[in-house]
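Team,

Forwarding the record for the chain on the shared tracking sheet. I've put the sequence and predicted structure together so nobody has to dig through attachments.
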Amino acid sequence: MDKLAKRLAKCFSLVFPGLPHAQIPSATAANVSGWDSIAQVNLLSLIGEEFNVDIDFEKFEGATSFEELLNRLREISTDA
């Protein structure tokens, strides 16, 4: 896991504390209990704070997996 992925995993751990660390890279809204619209907003808010970026919720719409979120962060992050 690169630095960006580790920082994203930290956000996942905070929003989904019961999710084992090893399962975070394969996490999706379909396989993580409790990943609902509120959890999505919380996750995106934490990502914004962690990466010091303004989150455009429309740009992140449909990003419902660790991989999708990581890809979108790579597009906008200067600290990749």
